[in-house]
Amino acid sequence: MEPKTTLGPLKNEIEFKDGVPVSLLFDDVYFSKQGGWEESSYVFLEGNQIPSKLAKKGHSIFYVGELGFGSGLNLFVTLDFWKSIPSPPQVTFMSLEGFPLKRDILLTLNKSYPDKKLWSEDLLSSYESAINLWTKDPTQNLWTYTWNHSSNQSTFTLQVFFGDVRLSLPQFLKIHSWYLDGFSPGKNPDMWSLDTLKEIQKKSNPGTSFATFSSAGFLRRNLTELGFVVDKKKGFGRKREMIFGFLK
Ligand SMILES: C[S@@+](CC[C@H](N)C(=O)[O-])C[C@H]1O[C@@H](n2cnc3c(N)ncnc32)[C@H](O)[C@@H]1O
């Protein structure tokens, strides 16, 4: 089947339930209503042991890979942590997004977390310019934005590839830690297909970690077949289990 988003963004209606954006296209939430920020920290940062990895010296650039960008919450949680360390390594946060959210939806995130630095006007207009460019010319699908660390010693670079996962993932560089966050597998099989997982393996080195809120059996089996060590732990909030692990 042809990727859905080759020719620019598809209509993705959003509605809010308990203050959390819900995609009507995928019939799923962008993050948990029981504390999105805490969920993201628990599942993706802790699941990938990002705090200890960023504390270790030795990475010239640390690459995070995310499937899908959504509201940017995982980005902001990671960026917030990186800003809090005295002398962190350079980070490149590579993400992808086929159905970019609109300004008014993104701004609700700022209201949910008023004490955090999230969508600034500068970041939003840079995002919108990149989407406009992509809409006019689908080959121009990369949005880049950079933050400097207060120590002035390091930068955090965001790269988001707009378009379908099948077109964007092959454009990623080798990743140190994966955030697999593409809606639930039952509702969005494309983000968890064997082809997607094979591409993730291709873009990993031995030791590359992954974490996801899902613990679906087929996902555990496919990741294991592809050479990942897969572990389970208690999921966030009311979720029973989540999985995490690394490539052997
Ligand atoms: C659960 S949301 C991501 C939440 C996000 N990480 C955050 O911090 O807000 C899943 C994202 O995957 C995107 N997505 C779903 N299917 C896709 C596909 N086939 N290609 C690219 N992006 C896709 C959705 O548009 C959505 O933004």
TrEMBL record:
Name of the protein described by the UniProt record = tRNA (5-methylaminomethyl-2-thiouridine)(34)-methyltransferase MnmD
Q: Which GO terms describe its molecular function?
A: oxidoreductase activity, acting on the CH-NH group of donors; tRNA (5-methylaminomethyl-2-thiouridylate)(34)-methyltransferase activity
Q: Look up the domain of life of the source.
A: Bacteria
The MnmC-like methyltransferase domain, residue ranges = 151-246
- InterPro entries named among the record's database cross-references: MnmC-like_methylTransf (IPR008471), SAM-dependent_MTases_sf (IPR029063), tRNA_MNMC2 (IPR047785)
Q: Which Pfam families match?
A: Methyltransf_30
What NCBIfam families does the record point to? tRNA_MNMC2 (NF033855)
Q: Which organism is it from?
A: Leptospira soteropolitanensis
